[in-house]
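We store sequence with structure; for instance:
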Amino acid sequence: MSSSPQPEPPALAAATAMFVEVLVVGIGAITASVLLLIALIGPDTTAKLAPVTGSSAAAGVGLATAYALGILIDRAADTALGILIDRAADTALTPHRRQLRTRFFPSNTAYAQARLRLADSPVLAARADYARSRMRICRGWTLNTLALTFTADLAMLRYSFEHRPLILGATSALGMATAFGFYCTWRALTMTGYRKLAEQTTLPAAGQPVPAQPQPGSVAS
């Protein structure tokens, strides 16, 4: 008796990884939103609303909102990085993702064909998906960290505590440094992903002869 078809583990793993990836980005976005709300309503109202946040309904709404914001932040991060890098006057900034791609692929068609060839190897395709997932998380958290730094500073300005200027300065410096670290990691992962894709898809297939290289002094027919 033939067994009923089972869902493909790679597809299920990819869907799970994508859900977790979006949620990880969204949690940072919703945290920044909460900090902004605290800054707007002040400490007294925040203390009154605090018990509500511990309810199951609030947790469910927060989870759903985090997932939705994760999708939004991922798209916004992609666009924002493009605007930031393409429009910047400082030549020390790294070119945008599409410009990075042209170092290894001369056209979008060549890149698409390489992706199709990579799909023929499930192991390599899974590794590439994992690398792209890490890249998108770093890209999203580049914006998340900037937003968290800004909203945390705003929230702290509404409260009175000792050494507030020092803590504000330290928070801002740490946030900017962390955002820059996420950006550098995004760039490195992007470059490595394109380089590996080019290397893995330009090798001759197994069983095919390697084209002969022209000898010095030979004339092509």
Summary: The helical segments are 9-49, 56-87, 97-101, 108-118, 122-157, 164-202.
